[in-house]
Amino acid sequence: MRDRAPHPLDNPAYASLTGPHAHLAERRGRIVRYPLDVSPWLGFPDDAGDADWADLAALAGPGTEVPLPGTTMDPPDGWELTFVLDGVQLVDDGIAAAPDPEAVRLGPADVPEMLDLVERTQPGPFLPRTVELGTYLGIRRGGALVAMAGERLHPPGWTEISAVCTDPAYRGHGLATRLVLAVAHGIRERGETPFLHTAARNTVAIRLYESLGFRLRRTTQFRAARTPGPAAAGKSEG
């Protein structure tokens, strides 16, 4: 009997960077990563061995903290495991995706406002070129950006919804929900399926996403480790 082929969502960063996002990938051996001003995520093969860990260390540089998506392997001697957070992966199971008449497409000119909103709301990593990963939608009030959501990882046939955030002064009005449904509508229009990640401890968000029609696909871990050697001042990819 042949082994089951790996599912794209089992290692979504690697599937993205060797698939639809390959044009963005920086490579060393089998290690692939996004440019550091796009995303801290990198692609780590399922069957990584000593040579892959060495390539990752060479690509990142000495003393650099790097994310380790798609693997629960402990890093080799000389590495320091710096971060472990339990997470969940949720997938579309019949959400009521729909466009939103108030949502506007965000682009490079909106990045300063997007970065400011992210800084105030902390939805997860969002960098100066993250907007290049896919469609980002926002809602404005009085001309100011007060909520947004967009696309991040893009394994074949799937697109991750990410950077879901709302200005604290405008929470409780359903803006984030509307944007999630609008982003999901665009993903569905391409014939793909939405999915997302969140921390397992974020039970409020999980209940909200499940109420929208997402279902738990699997539990996962968000992990990071520091490469061997002395750190360059302030250097981190995580």
UniProtKB/TrEMBL annotation:
Pfam families assigned: FR47
Domain (N-acetyltransferase) ranges: 101-229
Keywords: Acyltransferase, Transferase
Record bears the keyword Iron: no
Keyword Acyltransferase applies: yes
GO molecular function, one term: acyltransferase activity, transferring groups other than amino-acyl groups
Gene3D superfamilies xref list: 3.40.630.30
Superkingdom: Bacteria
Descriptive protein name: GNAT family N-acetyltransferase
Originating organism: Streptomyces kanamyceticus
